[in-house]
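Quick question about two entries, pasted in order.
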Amino acid sequence: MTGSSFDRASLIDRLSTVVGIPVVPFGEGGDVDHPLLASLIDRLVTAGVTALTPNGNTGEFYALSPEERRAVLLTVADAAAGRAVLVGGVGFDLATAVADARFAREAGVDAVMVHQPVLPYLSPEGWVEYNVTVAHAVPEIGVVPYLSTPLVTGAHIARLIDRAPNVVALKYSVPDPVVFASVRAEVAAGTTADVLWIAGLAESYAPAYWQGGARAFTSGLVNVVPAKSLAMLDALRGNDPAEAERVWRSIRQFEHLRARRRSADNVAVVKEAMHQLGLCRRDLRPPSAPLSARAREEVTESIASWSAPPPTTTAGTQSVRVPA
């Protein structure tokens, strides 16, 4: 593999922030509402979110068709208009991941986030080869592997980084801060390349992972109230554990609703909150499912203290209210 053409240090610096995972709104007929998606992206960027991953899990990546995923990427890129670093999600079989990574590169993204392959028999060595192949296909942009299995060790990750110099970051989503710290230390001992660790379990785990060396975190909450996510980032950057705990406590119930039942309602809770705030419809696609009436009430309770009812503006076909 030849040397990469992008500025590695600059890209890592730009990714060291809240990495928002935008939802994909659906219209009344079930199709992607692209005008509203563009408005929601503009809302995020205007609020101060400077990194976005279109086609992430909160964007119902696995429920979109190949054509829809590419259309979503283009809408997000057009709406962001160079105001945010873009990390396009790719995955599925290797040929599809490579083709979508090349499409994302041509669309002008700064990096691709490689979903962990959905396979009952995933091996650590196979995970390395999968990511190496995607990275080699797009040497001109950064690559951010998404990792949620503890089977992949620091030695595997170090091997990947040495073989694919455009791997600039790891989205690490193993729910164990001790394992994270150990894996990060093993990677640091196994390679001299600088790599960014992104806490992939959002604000709930961000403080613990920050202590372990992460300097960024992903967020689905950011779709609902960007100020909460940015306040957590400011507290962590400012080494203010009291403020970080205050923010954590204010979002704890909401994030609990997203995480329970092995995250079965992750996207449903986010969209329900957005629906209650007038931001988009609550509609989603299988394998996600609508919330029960009681669960909707719990969402209402979890966001009640966040802000007073905001003013309403019009965006696309929806009535949109912008929380503080």
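Here is the second entry:
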Amino acid sequence: MEFLVDTYFDALKVGDIQTTRGRTITESDIVNWCALTGDWFVLHSDKEYAARSMFGQRIAPGMMVLAFSGGLGVPPISEAVVANYGGDRIRYPRPTLIGDTVHVEIEVEELRPRDGETGVASFRWDVLNQNGETVVSSRLKVLLRRAPDVS
């Protein structure tokens, strides 16, 4: 699988789009996330409390779902990626439930040259569930290398 984020800055075009593979959110994911981060908020960790909530069940931590999206959309090794440059406008319009299968829709929204060697690419970085509903909406900025001069 090719990763849009693994493209040299000069090869990207505004409007380029990628849809990633999916990943199912499990109860183990949530328990492990809570244990690693200390985020034991009751909507994630207390079945009885969550059953009485507006959601009717436990929901996945939004930050966890956003973090998992990096594993879906960013390659494990890259010649093009220098660093994560930041994220903007992160929203969680719908809950992610145990058993939901999520994927990421990525679109190049803006390209800003930084210097002779790098540029900042801004991506629409939306996580959708198996029903095509957006569960995380964000903008990701990535510092990318410019294509090497092969002359």
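Reply: Strands lie at 17-19, 23-24, 81-91, 101-113, 118-128, 134-145. The mean pLDDT is 96. Hope that helps.
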